[in-house]
């Protein structure tokens, strides 16, 4: 029974981790009336100086096709001539690093040995998953991608809304295929809801 509980907890943790794989952030001009925008257009994407996996036709198509569908579902119509609001996107891929921890398998915070053999009676190194003390043993590098979409008021040329979807990249091809889901999530942050 204990093993079944452990398997259930591990499955739940995996499910939660997969749901939280993309983080979204947004900001807007608080006094802006977004309901006034009826038509939209596109500005060219902003070039990123970072390593960019999304500078190709497939990625651009995934971003723009999904964005157009989302904008139409919000009640906006595409217009080449004098649109009310202009959108543009930016893609950024950063190299990052994070600490890697070791768990010595001791009891939950009730003493044990620290990483260099010193006695730690109150678990000063923190608790790891499943008990014991964990402490950093090194670092690993990984890539983190951001897709940013901005809305500019055409009359004032000011950015009035910006939203970002961010996630770790493990394989560039999978990240490109995941772009429609990320863009849909970004437009869920738009201040006007669909009709």
Automatic annotation (TrEMBL):
UniProt keyword list: Signal
Pfam family, one: DUF4136
Signal peptide extent: 1-20
Transmembrane segments: none
Residue ranges annotated for the DUF4136 domain, each copy included: 29-191
InterPro entries: DUF4136
Name of protein: DUF4136 domain-containing protein
Source organism: Sphingobacterium oryzagri
Source species taxonomy: Bacteria, Pseudomonadati, Bacteroidota, Sphingobacteriia, Sphingobacteriales
